[in-house]
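Researcher: Re-running this chain for the archive, since the previous output was lost when a drive failed. Same request as before.
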Amino acid sequence: MTTYRIGSGYDVHALVEGRLLILGGVTIPYERGLLGHSDADVLYHAVADCLLGASALGDMGTFFPDEPELAGIDSALLLQRVVKRVWAEGYTLGNLDCTIIAEKPRLGSHIPGMRANLARLLEAEESQISVKATTCDGLGALGRSEGISARTTVLLVGKGG
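Model: Regenerated structure tokens:
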């Protein structure tokens, strides 16, 4: 019997001077980057939370507390660990839908790279992964370009009940 599990993920980080802006594993030229304990890749963090939630394995904070050895870590490594754990539970990816909310910079030209990176990390086809970007039309902290957030939804396919 095939089972289906749906999960959602969310992450947000402040934009600050002196940091690289990394989204979906793509380094994006911009005068500010995201502040966080790791490299603060909000897209990878939201995807990891999404996968953990769908498989009922917890969340990013439980899996990766703010320990000194994780300071500045590449979020791709964190996502790889989550994928390995979720796939070990017998799940595979049905599809993943991602939305990045950022007033600036414009992200359209970077989305193909993000999709390719996610497909590689999730051992999936790019056709199973959607990445979109939108703005807040100047409303709130994100609209004032104080940060960037990501929202994700995943469908996992598994065997058994």
